[in-house]
From TrEMBL, chains A, B, C:
Protein name, UniProt field: DNA-binding protein
Organism name: Thermococcus litoralis (strain ATCC 51850 / DSM 5473 / JCM 8560 / NS-C)
Record-annotated PPC domain positions: 3-138
Listed PROSITE patterns: PPC
GO molecular function, one term: DNA binding
Superkingdom assignment: Archaea
Keyword Hydrolase attributed: no
Cited InterPro entries: DNA_bp_PD1, PPC_dom
Keywords tagged on the record: DNA-binding
Amino acid sequence: MKFSRGRNFLFRIPEGKEFLSAVNEFAKKHNVLIGTISAIGTLKNPKIGYFEEEKGQYKVIELEGTYELVSALGNISIKDDEPFAHIHVSLGDKEGKLFGGHLIEGEVFVAEVYIQELLGEPLIRKPRENGLALWDAEEE
Amino acid sequence: MKFSRGRNFLFRIPEGKEFLSAVNEFAKKHNVLIGTISAIGTLKNPKIGYFEEEKGQYKVIELEGTYELVSALGNISIKDDEPFAHIHVSLGDKEGKLFGGHLIEGEVFVAEVYIQELLGEPLIRKPRENGLALWDAEEE
Amino acid sequence: MKFSRGRNFLFRIPEGKEFLSAVNEFAKKHNVLIGTISAIGTLKNPKIGYFEEEKGQYKVIELEGTYELVSALGNISIKDDEPFAHIHVSLGDKEGKLFGGHLIEGEVFVAEVYIQELLGEPLIRKPRENGLALWDAEEE
């Protein structure tokens, strides 16, 4: 779907906040209904998910300690009538080894976030039979 | 090179499609000649490449099974007179371990893609002696 | 903080340059004071950092050889009165295994870089007690 451009936000989430809920609160407060997100920083005790198709749910992977947030990439759209951020993250440990998946939660040590608002027709996540909430796929 | 901004597309590629060719078809259909791409989702049986300079070609790494598409990052420019997407990906397995490189192919389970069109002078990939097709480098 | 959009640059850094200083020089030359960065390519002998909170400094991880630059993600703001790029990278080895963290340096084999300028009030990094130079956090 095609969108026009809205506002651009570049900001730091305060230390101690939970990253994903802070992004969702930011979107709600500023009324960002559609958008893209990218971020870097450092997260503590992040939990990530791997979607198990056969079970129709995420397997939760709990990482202990402090990780470089090497990349957070995702988007904002509407789910259950509210702005909802879907974010995947890549996380680096002390040896530089990377772990990652679907972000479930993570405590912010540092988070530098870019949100780019998009404007247009509502982009809505709808529950699917496979357990995921997805936009309609782009028609051919 | 400096570009002005064109259209913004945020969309989901249908399940079952091959990711890279779907992006290339989208660019062709919508006449996106220059742009940037980012995406997250889930891919099946992705193939990634590692460029071996001494051989002047990519070593192909075939990953089996389903992987979280933790990041897809890249750009669109012209190669052989057509829009061409160059994309690198980071992929997470069931344990949260990450693999990645130059995307060769991957079957879409979920793919949420953002394409930002850029407008300006043609940006063209030209074959190089080292085996790669590259833009002219930015002058000092 | 909210910003308006400035210029858009998509370009290739010449082979042999050091990636991070090339980005900083580009920002300085073109007077990009605020912005976002993303890039893909291939880097040689990259050095990455993992921030050790208890020591208030980065542990340096030196990677030898050639790595796919799977993702470079970051931003530009002002530090010590000059444009300063803060970039995190994900790097893939010959087997597709990923390493990453805070980019310290890396020699460019290929680097395709997108810089999006933002315009607005100065965004400034200030030294913190924890050893990092950070923007003021977004107010609630």
